[in-house]
């Protein structure tokens, strides 16, 4: 949920760079919503599957945590594989392991907000305060500017939030508590003037979504995305009945999730970064989004306006290398890093989830892409 989650996209550029660079040949039009988390039905793994699994096993053996991936290209059916540890308890990770996905959450929130636009409940160029009167921090800001990070609203994670979360890790943060951190700060710039990534935008977007629908974020996610797509394990944390795997972190006390509760992190992240999901579920989601199963073409065009350049899009960013059709996003929350990319014009897909923030995923991403290009 940190401000660096946008900068993190630069660090995973290599993880997707080669994946979309090979060819613009259209995909062969297979099932858009495959069973993502199921193990392959063949008794003998394909050459590509075996090579990917060997790579993941080697990467995991060199560190403490684990990794789950979903990947595909125009000739390789989607694979969902995993390797390594699911946390400090040392158990082996599974391909359907549940990871914190950090700022990938923003794409889901943007989709749900755009569904309200499609339903006529809000307009992209409506002022946020039309629906959240009294929220002075959003004065003069439109919903479009909020989702595009063009509001000028200050970033709440840059100041006292981090120390406060670590000091009282079991605290429950409300959106109002988060916004109070920046309510007295000056606007970074007038609304619409420029792009500046700010998690605060999506805390407000979550409030707007709940206000307009009179449903919680969790209920909206379940009704608008999880159930329609048949996702198996995608939800907002904290959830009293389930939780993600453990992780290894350079920022949490003790260095692992056993060293601190995630309650404060989860509740402070909220609509900006608190979703938990699996590699297979994320793959289904990003395919469905780009293939038109969640938003009608006119609204999706608003979401991706400006591609391949960043700065105008709503909740997504361009693929790497940039194309007019490929979308991506990246996320980071202590202990976890996440990346997703899909280009419907080529069928190239990469979802990469890791539960060890002490390690870079750049080389792993490059190596995965290299295997796909040679398959």
Give the topology:
Blueprint: H1 4-11, H2 13-17, H3 47-61, E1 66-72, E2 79-84, E3 99-100, H4 105-118, H5 143-147, H6 161-167, H7 175-180, H8 199-213, H9 217-229, E4 235-236, H10 263-269, E5 275-277, H11 279-290, H12 297-303, E6 317-318, E7 327-333, E8 336-343, E9 348-354, H13 362-374
Antiparallel strand pairs: 1-2, 1-9, 3-5, 4-5, 6-7, 7-8, 8-9
Helix pairs in contact: 3-13, 4-8, 4-9
Uncertain segments are 1-43
| Order of SSEs | HHHEEEHHHHHHEHEHHEEEEH
The CATH class designation of the domain at 4-107 and 218-374 is Alpha Beta
- Chain-averaged pLDDT: 86
- What portion of the residues fall into strands of 2 or more residues? 5-15%
Main beta sheet: strand number and arrangement?
Answer: 6 strands, antiparallel
CATH topology term of the domain at 4-107 and 218-374: Beta-lactamase
Distance between the termini: 35 Å
Instruction: Report Rg.
Output: 20 Å
Helix percent reads 25-40%
Characteristics:
single chain; 375 residues; alpha+beta; 3-stranded antiparallel sheet; 13 helices; 34% helix; disordered N terminus
């Amino acid at each position: 949920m940190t401000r660096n989650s946008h900068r993190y996209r630069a660090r995973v550029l290599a993880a997707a760079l080669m994946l979309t660079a090979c060819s613009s040949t259209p995909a062969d039009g297979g099932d858009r919503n495959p069973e993502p988390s199921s193990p392959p039905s063949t008794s003998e793994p394909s050459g590509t599957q075996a090579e990917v699994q060997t790579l993941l096993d080697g990467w995991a053996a060199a560190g403490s945590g684990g990794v789950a991936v979903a990947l595909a290209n125009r000739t390789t059916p989607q694979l969902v594989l995993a390797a390594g540890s699911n946390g400090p308890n040392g158990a082996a990770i599974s391909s359907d392991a549940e990871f914190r996905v950090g700022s990938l959450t923003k794409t889901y929130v943007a989709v749900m907000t755009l569904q309200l636009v499609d339903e006529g409940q809000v307009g992209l160029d409506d002022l946020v305060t039309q629906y959240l009167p009294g929220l002075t921090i959003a004065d003069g800001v439109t919903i479009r500017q909020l989702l595009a990070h063009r509001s000028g609203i200050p970033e709440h994670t840059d100041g006292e939030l981090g120390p406060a979360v670590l000091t009282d890790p079991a605290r429950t943060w409300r959106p109002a508590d988060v916004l109070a951190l920046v309510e007295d700060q000056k606007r970074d710039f007038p609304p619409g003037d420029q792009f500046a990534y700010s998690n605060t935008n999506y805390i407000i977007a979550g409030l707007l979504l709940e206000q307009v629908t009179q449903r919680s974020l969790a209920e909206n996610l379940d009704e608008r995305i999880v159930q329609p797509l048949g996702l198996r394990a995608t939800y907002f944390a904290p959830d009293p009945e389930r939780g993600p795997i453990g992780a290894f972190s350079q920022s949490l006390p003790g260095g692992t999730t056993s060293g601190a509760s995630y309650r404060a992190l989860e509740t402070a992240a909220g609509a900006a970064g608190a979703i938990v999901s699996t590699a297979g579920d994320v793959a289904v989601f990003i395919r469905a989004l780009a293939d038109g199963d969640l938003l009608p073409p006119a609204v999706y065009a608003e979401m991706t306006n400006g591609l391949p350049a960043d700065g105008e899009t709503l909740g997504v960013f361009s693929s790497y290398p940039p194309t007019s059709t490929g979308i991506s996003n990246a996320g980071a929350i202590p202990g976890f890093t996440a990346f997703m990319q899909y280009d419907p014009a080529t069928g190239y897909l990469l979802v990469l989830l890791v539960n060890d923030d002490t390690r870079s995923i750049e080389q792993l991403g490059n190596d995965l892409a290299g295997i796909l290009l040679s398959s």
